[in-house]
Design a protein that fits this description.
The complex is a heterodimer of chains A (204) and B (251). Helix content of chain A is 5%, strand content 26%. Chain A contains two helices and eleven strands. In chain A, strand 6, helix 2 and strand 7 form a beta-alpha-beta unit. Chain B has one domain: Protocatechuate 3,4-Dioxygenase, subunit A. Chain B has two helices and twelve strands; from the N terminus they run βαββββββββαβββ. In chain B, the strands form two sheets. In chain B, strands 2, 3, 4, 5, 8, 9, 10, 11 and 12 form a nine-stranded mixed beta sheet that branches. In chain B, strands 6-7 form a two-stranded antiparallel sheet. The longest helix of chain B is centred in the last third of the chain and has 5 residues. The chains are: A mainly beta (204), B mainly beta (251). At the A-B interface, helix 1, strand 5, strand 6 and strand 11 of A face strand 1, helix 1, strand 3, strand 4 and strand 9 of B.
Chain lengths: 204, 251
């Protein structure tokens, strides 16, 4: 026998179920009066620095059907590449930018939507700069463990070409699943759970 | 959102422990039918944490309303309260090193005492309770403690096989200190025989991991003549200490 390391095991994940909107966006789910506003619906204000963008998309299942009961969260750096987090040791992020957003996919067409700003570049572990990106986390009925992926900007070709995370993707044909094309004033990022266009998901 | 207001201790910046994917449910679990078309089929790309995963949003106690963690009253008309067996759920949010996680936002949602959710897509015949909304939230204190008050949710049938029933449960969504700790799970109740008949519970491969989601009845924490108490600890991913960590260039 040896000494015990005394570690605990992470609580096992369970699906968010069909009613995740009750818990995470009750006003959207028409449960009024419990909270003033749903968390994460506003990432920016009038003073936020950076280029305003809208990010929209759908989460699409293996039959091509968009999910109408999903919840999508995003986490991103500010315009200077700093995170609004106590663990950000490089400086102070823009106090007028939360960096975190949450959007239910709606019951009409399953779209999620974020009003945000284009993030700056953030260093990789070795100091090389990553391309601008937004981290996504997706939960829904039928998803047993929340899915992690990243949205990159298709029009950042030079930065994307030297991004150390994109470089890690062995099957280059899959890289475009992470590249959001410009769509008017914003970017379109559809997330495919299965099939030929299955989005690259990360084990972070 | 506020930063740094929760603790005097220096924020930790080490990488999170690798997630044990054999402990969590796999994506594809055909006995839970909805997972079939919603499960990625290609291998996940492993990514040692960068700043994008090591950092995460922190929520200040100032976002909380007085009744946010009281589901018996937070949707009820003045002077009214939700119907059902009154319970307290309390516990700690810990990480895999056994350390309390301070400032963790917990959000929870559940069916009413009859097993009915307040949702327009919900069709179960059990009635709505006009005084029960079914959602709440709280933030852990400096030691990671939290508590909430609610009614015992009812079990309910759900469309999977023709006669599948969910055990009584409360959904929990948890934020730790880094976005890579983000977790959603469900809390079950000690002694519920439906736990061992549920295809969603059964997506978890091991009995020990399931038992980690079953809250224990704690008679010592009850409020006599008022509410029973269940203890439910939640464990988030731990992180490496930075004692000899390689210094990141540019930091």
């Amino acid at each position: 026998m040896v000494q015990s390391l005394g570690r605990l095991k992470e609580s096992a994940s369970q699906t968010a179920g069909p009613y995740v909107h009750i818990g995470l966006s009750p006003n959207f789910a028409e449960i009024a009066g419990v909270y003033d506003a749903d968390l994460g619906i506003s990432m920016v204000n009038d003073k936020t620095r950076g280029e305003r963008i809208t990010v929209t998309g759908q989460v699409i299942d293996g039959s091509g059907t968009p999910l109408k009961d999903a919840m999508v969260e995003v986490w991103q750096a500010d315009a200077d590449g700093l995170y609004n987090s106590p663990a950000e040791m490089r400086g102070s992020a823009d106090a007028n930018f939360s960096g975190w957003g949450r959007s239910p996919t709606n019951m009409q067409d399953g779209e999620f939507r974020f009003e945000t700003i284009k993030p700056g570049r953030v260093p990789f572990r070795d100091g090389r700069l990553m391309a601008p990106h937004i981290s996504f986390w997706i939960v829904a009925r039928g998803i047993n463990l929340g899915l992690s992926t990243r949205m990159y900007f298709a029009d950042e070709e030079a930065a994307n070409a030297e991004d150390p995370v994109l470089a890690r993707i062995e099957h280059r044909v899959r890289v475009p699943t992470l590249l959001a094309p410009r769509d008017g004033n914003g970017y379109r990022f559809d997330i495919h759970l299965q099939g030929d266009k299955e989005t690259v998901f990360f084990d972070i | 959102m506020s930063s740094g207001a929760l603790s005097n201790s220096k924020p930790e910046t080490g990488s999170f422990f690798q997630r044990d994917l054999g402990w969590h449910p796999p994506a594809f679990t055909p006995e839970y039918k909805t997972s079939v078309l919603r499960s990625p089929q290609k291998a996940l790309i492993s990514l040692d944490n960068t700043l994008s995963e090591l950092t995460g949003p922190v929520f200040g106690h100032n976002i909380l309303g007085e009744k946010d963690n009281d589901l018996i009253h937070n949707f009820a008309q003045p002077g009214e309260s939700a119907i059902g067996p009154r319970i307290i759920v309390y516990g700690r949010v810990l990480d895999e090193r056994g350390r309390g996680v301070d400032g963790a936002l917990l959000e929870f949602w559940q069916a009413n005492a009859g097993g009915r959710y307040r949702h327009k897509k919900e069709g179960y015949i059990a009635p709505l309770d006009p005084n029960f909304g079914g959602c709440g939230r709280t933030i852990t204190d400096e030691e990671g403690n939290y508590s909430l008050r609610t009614i015992l949710p009812g079990p309910y049938p759900w469309p999977n096989r023709v006669n599948d029933w969910r055990p009584a449960h409360i959904h929990f969504s948890i934020f730790g200190h880094g976005f890579a700790q983000r977790l959603i799970t469900q809390m079950y109740f000690e002694g519920d025989p439906l736990i061992w008949k549920c295809p969603i519970v059964d997506t978890i491969p091991g009995r020990e991991a399931i038992e980690g989601l079953v809250a224990a009845l704690d008679m010592e924490a009850t409020l006599p003549m008022d509410a029973r108490a269940y203890k439910f600890d939640i464990v988030l991913r731990g992180r490496r200490s930075t004692m000899f960590e390689n210094r990141l260039e540019g930091n």
